[in-house]
Automatic annotation (TrEMBL):
It holds the Pfam family wnt. Its main location: secreted. Keywords: Developmental protein, Disulfide bond, Extracellular matrix, Glycoprotein, Lipoprotein, Secreted, Signal, Wnt signaling pathway. GO terms for molecular function: cytokine activity; frizzled binding. Residues 1-26 form the signal peptide. One of its GO terms (cellular component) is extracellular space. Ligand for members of the frizzled family of seven transmembrane receptors. InterPro entries: Wnt (IPR005817), Wnt_C (IPR043158), Wnt_CS (IPR018161). This is Protein Wnt. It is found in: Secreted, Extracellular space, Extracellular matrix.
Amino acid sequence: MKSEFVSFPLCAVTLLTLALSQHCAAIRWLAISQTAEHINKTQQCKTLPGLVSSQAQLCRTNLELMQIIVQAAREVKKTCQKTFADMRWNCSSIDAPKYLPDLERGTRESAFVYALSAAAISHTIARACTSGDLKLCTCGPIPGDALEPGHRWGGCADNLHYGLVMGSKFSDAPMKMKKKTGLHPNKLMHLHNSEVGRQALKDALVMKCKCHGVSGSCSIRTCWRGLQDLKEIAQDLKTKYLSATRVKHQPTGTRKQLVPKDIDVRPVRENELVYLQSSPDFCAKNDKMGSIGTQDRQCNKTSSGSDSCDLMCCGRGYNPYTEKVVERCHCKYHWCCYVTCKKCERTVERYVCK
């Protein structure tokens, strides 16, 4: 499929990035993860990296919220890289603000990052309401559902509604800017995948309970609705990443929408990730495609999964090396109260791709 590109000098740092669309700004807000200073003055908003004008305006009117969004940006990077640590693409390209083309070309990797970013910002805001770190919101509402005997609603629920409203307002802002030029398919793709991320967050709202009663009898349980950890949501999105659907931009009546590239595939579902461009295999370094390669990546010789030396090294082979590891050993339990251990050193063999 031939792609249509427009130049966007504000994003260009090299000749390569001159070929990227105007939507290269869509997740530039993740660059605020590198902000070290505390955001407590409106003047700071115009100096924050990666923000479009509407995001900077939101910053000026919600300084307290911006500190939570900085935390969310850090969570996106950490969670993405941990989730894909065992795969050829290990989310290294999320090192803002110098994104590699794999996050700009409409690939399934960009689909995952957009979905995770949308989920993470709303997740972090919702949790901040619960912890009291945000004075702008309170705990989530008490559900009206009846509970079984011995259970009662209480505690402090995560304020998912507030998180979704403010999170989408901020993260979707670059894609909702009114411009006559640019890659409309990319905008539709990013908006769709961001919504998939928020839907995964809604699905991660579960009932949590705490026991009460004499001597831990748990005769009464106080329950509330809370979110699962972001790492659990990321794993759900990783599954969607692996089964993502390639789409194309096709006129449908007076509108244009994304439809599966293979015409015999069912229509796109609201809870599945979509992508426009195929990804490289990420085996070799290729700056144009956004691949850093897998040379010198650690692999697992005994694994049969994506981290196996065969798959990770793409058939090039691997080199062994030894590493000394210090760990606890010869632990003894002392009656009544405590455990003592010694420190032992052992040598382990590791493998890295050629």
